[in-house]
Amino acid sequence: MPTTPPPCPVCALENTYQDGELYICPDCAHEWPVAAPAEDAEAEKIVKDAVGNVLVDGDTVTLIKDLKVKGSSLVIKQGTKIKNIRLVSGDHDVDCKVDGTPMMLKSQYLKKA
């Protein structure tokens, strides 16, 4: 049994229809996704450190092994404390500053302090 589409969130009129993955209001031309709340829940990724602790923005972490900085002769030593991390999406999921230099690191080489 087909369900009736919800009223338009912009103009509140009930003359809406579904077209693929979008609801469309022909009165005000507003379009919105059919499953927006489910997509937002999936977008939140839980980032864990090497030991399995959940990391959040603003945490302080330490390195568990020496890391060579790509494109440089610099090596970040094991045990280096990194304060105020920021979580981002992608392969390198931690954005931070090490000795004033902005870097992106993988959470698998970090341990929550």
From TrEMBL:
Protein YjdM C-terminal domain: which residues? 47-113
Positions of the Protein YjdM N-terminal domain: 6-33
Q: Name one Pfam family in it.
A: Zn_Ribbon_YjdM
Q: Which family does it belong to?
A: Belongs to the YjdM family.
Q: State the name under which the record lists this protein.
A: Alkylphosphonate utilization protein
Q: Which organism is it from?
A: Stagnimonas aquatica
